[in-house]
Amino acid sequence: MKTPHHESVLSRAARILEAFSQDEPALTVSEIARRSGLHVATASRLVAELVAHGFLSRDDDRQVRIGVRLWELVTRASPTLSLRDTAMPFMEGVHDVVGHHVQLGVLNGDDVLFLERLSAPGAVINYTRVAGRLPLHASSSGLVLLAHGPVSLRERILAGPLTTYTPHTPATPAQLRAILADVRQQGYAYCPGYVHEEALGIAAPVRGGDGTVLAALAVIVPNDASAQAVVPVVRTAARGISRALGST
Amino acid sequence: MKTPHHESVLSRAARILEAFSQDEPALTVSEIARRSGLHVATASRLVAELVAHGFLSRDDDRQVRIGVRLWELVTRASPTLSLRDTAMPFMEGVHDVVGHHVQLGVLNGDDVLFLERLSAPGAVINYTRVAGRLPLHASSSGLVLLAHGPVSLRERILAGPLTTYTPHTPATPAQLRAILADVRQQGYAYCPGYVHEEALGIAAPVRGGDGTVLAALAVIVPNDASAQAVVPVVRTAARGISRALGST
């Protein structure tokens, strides 16, 4: 079905796109070649083709970036845009009241992928970024998605390894099973210091019209006793988004 | 430099991505073939390859969409993400006070391309979308970008044609020249009914560290006398974003 040659061009194009990151959005051709494991001549030719199609762009100083045209094509028809657009006013409301960080995450592979994040200046430390990822077992959003996700996924994650970030990160299958049962029973995840000692995540499920959990809404606040008061805010907003998506 | 065959694969991949839009984010292979002008067999083979690389995804019901993996790759290294992230708290502040729509646009080709939009429920009509476009001469954001853009661009747009949306849209080169002079002199664009009779756009320039205009911040409010009070809010926020970007 596929000719090796076709596969090869798209496969190499994919490797080139993967060379860019939020920390390094601009690279030279030789950096791209090194990161993508391609010969410089091959990388150079492919970058030129990708630039010609607007997938990449090249500055006056030879730095290559993701092209604005590609961003536009992908964003305007993004599979996540309508979810994000529906959630946005609710997220803004939570952000007005709670401050710090409000974020929306979806299950993608064995991770939570964050579609949106609103942050206040001076907010508590938070490793999340738009289009960033965190492991399912360690983050409040991930625990909500895992608790309501497929059994096969849960068994795979429970089989480990469970990376720990602090002494509070769930580290054993037994701990994780207990937490997931709590998340399902209480209707939210409450995670003091799981990813960073100073931060506490609270997440609640966002459901679609058929009741399926589509996303997790989370706030990240300082890890102290005042966080408990935020729980009803997060749960209410997550229910609001679910209602707006047609859930009853 | 390019082999026709390589060019052809990426060129056809680009045409396939271009087939998707915000109104039609999910298409069947035959719809994709029709929109991209490819034979169904060719489209089918390329879609399969793009699905294999995560550029597209296919549902159980055979609907094809932009892949979440591609969204992630493009978004995490987006050339516009740092601008958008810097602007976001200022945009939220304006949105809290003004309501309706707050949006951030950049110059792209002969259009304004919108990177972000915050909208309130029940806000005035607005054709802008995230990753959507408007012509430069008709929108408040576009007029700010055009007023501060390259002379060659200005001359090209002034040479027309100037599409009109209402009787208030600038329709002649003389009208447009006068408006652009006002925008430069006043420091903002004020556009009652240019795109829709009921809406009024107000936009101000966002400048980078070297003083270059990088973007336009705009609000869209109802087309009435109360709009004038919004001007200082928009100008202040645009200055704030500029300061945060290093402008003095």
From TrEMBL, chains A, B:
PROSITE patterns: HTH_ICLR (PS51077), ICLR_ED (PS51078)
SMART domains associated with the record: HTH_ICLR
GO molecular function: DNA binding; DNA-binding transcription factor activity
InterPro entries per record: GAF-like_dom_sf (IPR029016), HTH_MetabolicPath_Reg (IPR050707), Tscrpt_reg_IclR_C (IPR014757), Tscrpt_reg_IclR_N (IPR005471), WH-like_DNA-bd_sf (IPR036388), WH_DNA-bd_sf (IPR036390)
Keywords: DNA-binding, Transcription, Transcription regulation
Domain HTH iclR-type: 7-68
Domain spans labelled IclR-ED: 69-247
GO annotation (BP), single: negative regulation of DNA-templated transcription
PANTHER family associated with the record: HELIX-TURN-HELIX TRANSCRIPTIONAL REGULATOR, ICLR FAMILY, HTH-TYPE TRANSCRIPTIONAL REPRESSOR ALLR
Full protein name: IclR family transcriptional regulator
Organism: Streptomyces spongiae
